[in-house]
Amino acid sequence: MKYKIEHTNIFKYDTVVDQSMNSIRLKPRTDEVQRLLSYRADITPASLTKEHIDIWGNNVETFFIAEHHQHLEVKTTSIVSIQKSPFIHQIDYSPEMRAIFHSKLFGEHYLAYLSNTAYTYLNPEQIEQVDRELGKFDNPVQYALDVMNFIHDHFTYNGESTDVSTKASESFDLRKGVCQDITHVMLGILRSKHIPARYVSGYLYVGENSALVGDAASHAWVEFMVPGVGWVGLDPTNNVEALENHIRVGVGRDYNDVSPVQGVYRGGSQSLDVKVSVSLLDQ
Questions:
Q1: Contact 205, 184 (CB under 8 A)
Q2: This prediction's pTM
Q3: CATH of domain 2-82+261-282
């Protein structure tokens, strides 16, 4: 599958901004199942970017605007090819995988993805509610699938109930939110059972006559580590394995690690308009 992604962020400021420093994480990744064929970032006012790889392996571009401006537009255009087959339901959780999962080395290696953050923390009472519903934890692969089903059954996709600062504990009580909120809740549940899990940001191709939701802006889902297999993606918003429709950009502990645009500026308040278009070029 080959896709073209156009992502536009338009910032408007109430007063003139005399300078700003920004970083963007909008460049899709290249790995064993996804290949970035082309990428371009157009910034207005015009600015050169400097690129580096962050601690999580994400592509980060930084740029500085010294001139006065009251409008900032960041538009990226990417072409990505993905070839990925479903396999999570075919994983046979072996005694060897179980031994690795419970080993000290496994826990130490993935410690960053085992510790909850302010975004992903769920209180003990909330975890108990999940435990009563799902029962005893034994197989992390099956448990992750059960958690995804639980969230999809109990949570409503709703863009009006939360904002970018909403934490998992708040979303859990509301039982609604956007993909960011739903992903944070699933991360909190998996990490409570010492399953390494990370936040994935990217894009979702919905296409025609699809029941999938979450393509209006950047999408988010979960990847959890399966011993001997690697990172496996699950999309709790849509209750599906993350496959060829899911275009990966960044990974981290939570949204804060992969926020598409971050920056500081000198000036008044701002408004943001985001537009995302994902089109299929070739199957």
A1: no
A2: 0.94
A3: 2.60.40.2250
